[in-house]
Amino acid sequence: MTGGVDPRLVGIWIVPGEPRTYEVDAGGGYHVADPESPVSFEAGGAVMLWEGEAHDRLSGSGATPEGRWRGRDTGADWNFAADGGYTVTLDGSTDRGIWALRQQGNALWTREEVARLTTTGAEVTYALREGGTVTYGYTVGGGLWTLHDPKTWVELARLVDATTLPAAP
Prior knowledge:
The chain is an all-beta fold and 169 residues long. Helix content is 0%, strand content 56%.
């Protein structure tokens, strides 16, 4: 597995009791997300209301985030691609991630890529977007992903595969 990512890590993970999700994609992208936010469209899709801010469409059309948007208050420049990827530029800094519509198109869920993962089967290395790397020991199986101190093997964190949890009522 050197140079790639353990396929057993691909998916959405949670820490019980926390609202955030942690997602690993097949290419090793590591994404962190807060819960989705309500989204609506006005003026024939020219305005998107999301996360308490109006966003004006710069490209694209219709009642979908797909296209380019500028936040009226923040000036953030969002580009939502058809393949589910996005970039957001604010104050000269660009972040990227993945997006999806949820709740029958009434909520927008963005997951920011914060690192790229590689695994060896015993260790997982996070190449952080902001620079540097961090390595942990890990085990994965039975719907659990456990991170360990790579020297002492003391458990540091336990994540649960979100698909193994019962559906909310």
